[in-house]
Amino acid sequence: MPDLPGGLEIVASQIQPITLQAELACAPGELLALVGPSGSGKSTLLRCIAGLHSPQQGHIRCGGVNWYDAQQGINLPPQSRRVGFVFQNYSLFPHLSAQDNVLCALGHLPAQQRGARALELLAMTHLKGLEARKPAQLSGGQQQRVALARALARDPAVLLLDEPFSAVDQVTRRRLQVELARLRGEVKIPIVLVTHDLDEARMLADRMTLLSHGRTLQSGTPGDILTRPVSAQVARLVELNNVFGGTLESVDAQGRGLLCWRSHKIEVERVDGFAPATRLSWVIPPENVILHRRDRPSLGERENPIEGRIDDCLPLGDATRIVLALDGDVRARISFSVPTHVARRNGIAVGEIARVSLLASGIHLMPAEPDITG
Fold first, then answer.
1. Which residue of 7, 133, 161, 197 could cross-link 27, Cys pair, CB 3.0 to 4.6 Å?
2. 3-class secondary structure for 313-340?
3. Most confident stretch, 24-33, 80-89, 174-183, 293-302
């Protein structure tokens, strides 16, 4: 666990009611996205930080202060932890105006300062002129802004966001994401965001922590996790479908490797910690699969060329998703996307033969996992 002065760190474990074996850290001014399938423990971890749930073992520290430590018997109540929490359903008081909802969280300020601070926070979250409206008179996006203003009203040491955009339409969601990105520059505190949306995590987060069944599987930048997963399990959880098995044949002095996969010899640009003759798993993100043009072959297409039959071809607006079955084996299928106009120009259709290149720089090696095609 890194030392993060002023930041948040949590090590938590328990057996009941759900298994939990998790670690995470978030520095001041950093946004950490917690991602993983439903039931993986993301919301439980937020509740642990806020003091709404206590793990059986571990510790929680924020800004150098112990909020929870099982060994030392420390467990501060929620009201003693400086936490701003935006719940999925916002949890606004329906009988109070937007301004009064925010005022409820300003009890730590002298009474004469609270009204001005509430108005300041509502203006910061783009609600100026709507202060007197009750939640039922506000749109979903506006209610989310009130909840955020109320969370910030506590002058929190950490801001927790539990899928805050899930109840709004897509246009409003994008607008709120932009506002959150801008807000980060104004509040220099750790921000922990729970989301199911990998694109949202990629766009907003400095770092991601991937959870499954209460366990931390990998932490790192979104780019690292989404292109260099530590295991085939992580690859599948972040929707990288091109996961295969193979054997590392050789590694040269520059660290480049040659991978035996089925009847192919695949060049790999970067080999980390694997010795020749090692059985392993490997993954290639779809953006590193390049379709060969039929009308004008190029020298670049000599890089790891693979031929197969198109097993699926699905236009999705401007992009077309393609699944290529190799060597006539539907168990060895490579998924990727191309612009729809490129698919049309190249006559891409189910049953057609196509060739692709697998970029050596995009191939990532992982420890072997049983039952993976290779």
1. 7
2. EEEECCEEEEEEEECCCCCCEEEEEEEH
3. 24-33
Q: What is the residue whose two structure tokens read 């850290």?
A: 25
Query: Position of tokens 């295991």?
Result: 231
**What are the residue ranges of helices labelled H in the chain?**
42-50, 98-103, 111-124, 140-153, 170-183, 198-204, 222-227, 232-237, 340-345
Give tens-digit pLDDT for 81-138. Answer: 999 999 888 889 999 999 999 999 998 999 999 999 999 999 999 999 999 999 999 9
- 302 secondary structure, DSSP code: G
Confidence of residue 147 (pLDDT cuts 50, 70, 90): very high
The number of angstroms, rounded, from the C-alpha of 197 to the middle of its chain's C-alpha atoms is 7
DSSP lists the bridge partners of residue 358 as 289
Pick 259 or 6 by higher pLDDT: 259
Q: Which residues contact 166 (CB under 8 A, 6 or more apart)?
A: 88, 196
In angstroms, the CA 374 to CA 157 distance is 49
Q: Is residue 77 packed enough to be buried (19+ CB in 10 Å), middle (13-18) or exposed (0-12)?
A: exposed
pTM: 0.89
In angstroms, rounded to a whole number, what is the distance separating the alpha carbons of residues 184 and 83? 16
